[in-house]
Amino acid sequence: MKNPSFSWSPPPDSLTDLLIRNGLDSLLASEILNHSGLIELRKGDCFLPSFQEAALNYVERGVLKEVVDYPAELSKVTGIWLPKTLLTSHAPNGNNPWLNKSYVALDSTVIRAVPGNCLHKLASKSEALFEFCLRRYEISNAATRDWSVMSSLLDKKQHIIMCLVIIFLYGHEIEFRSAPLKYDDIASFSGVTKQYCISVIKELIGQEMIRKRYGTLAIEDLDALVSLVDIRHLNYYIQYLKCPN
After folding, report:
1. Worst-scoring range by mean pLDDT, 48-57, 190-199, 229-238?
2. According to the model, what pLDDT value does residue 2 have?
3. The pTM is what?
4. What does R_g of the chain's alpha carbons equal in angstroms?
């Protein structure tokens, strides 16, 4: 990149790789993998992971948006989950109405889910796994909180561009060069109207930074797009995507 530096690490190749990067030995990582299962989602499907069936969830393919249902029937998009990232269920026995999270697939999505009973059993024998699970739930809740705050504090145009940069920057590492996003998706990520979102996207297309292609947005000039965002904000948020996770 030609822009000011930001911290980044290559994404994990698999759930096993992610676990090993986080200090688990290969035998334990293999045992966790053996207890996991695949969940396939079609575009538009809603995924509401329970701790018992899907405590830790590694996105093998696809894109999801995270939605929090707040009191008074208010819903807000609070995150983007891309391939090779790890999302969590609600904490076991958690009853926090402010963190009633679900995930909506924006494309065909495959998730490798690890059930909570497996983690409960293995974590009682492995301090490394116990600490990893605690850290993942802390990171997940912090990501939800910070995305919500960011959408309230950033300039609207800056937030739209930030969303695109995060998606394409991470995608650059995994050869994920286009995103199956609609204007409605980007607007909801950024907390703006669809009309305003369209105007910003058209401006970026006119500057040949991105292009529309078969219902997706594709990157043309990632360096130029990155140059439009505040590197401090970018560095802060990508801590939730960089690896080890």
Report:
1. 229-238
2. 39
3. 0.80
4. 18
CB 205 within 8 A of CB 212: yes
Q: What pLDDT, in 10s, does the model give residues 162-221?
A: 888 877 766 554 455 556 677 887 887 777 888 999 999 999 999 998 888 776 777 788
Kindly report the CATH number that applies to the domain delimited by 154-240.
1.10.10.10
Task: Give the fold, CATH level 3, of 15-152.
Answer: Jelly Rolls (2.60.120)
Half-sphere exposure of 113 (CA within 13 A, CB side): 22
Nearest to 143 by CA among 59, 56, 80: 80
Q: What is the dihedral of CA 45, 112, 34, 31, to 10 degrees?
A: -140
Q: Considering Cα of 234, then 165, then 203, then 191, what sign does the dihedral take? A: negative
- Euclidean distance between CA atoms 1 and 196, whole angstroms: 29
Which residues lie across from 114 on neighbouring strands?
Answer: 56
- Element (H or E) spanning 172, and its range? helix 156-173
Q: What is the mean pLDDT of the chain?
A: 81
- Banded pLDDT at 1 (limits 50, 70, 90): very low
CA–CA distances in Å: residue 130 to residues 97, 118, 119, 166, 203: 25, 12, 8, 29, 48
Tell whether omega for the bond before 244 is within 30 degrees of 0, i.e. cis. yes
For residue 195, give the amino acid letter.
Answer: Q
- How high is the pLDDT of residue 179? 62
**Torsion region of 4: left, alpha or beta (phi above 0 gives left; psi -120 to 50 gives alpha):** beta
* Distance (Å) of CA 201 to CA 19, 47, 82, 168, 176: 37, 28, 21, 14, 19
Task: Indicate the domain borders of the chain.
Answer: 15-152, 154-240
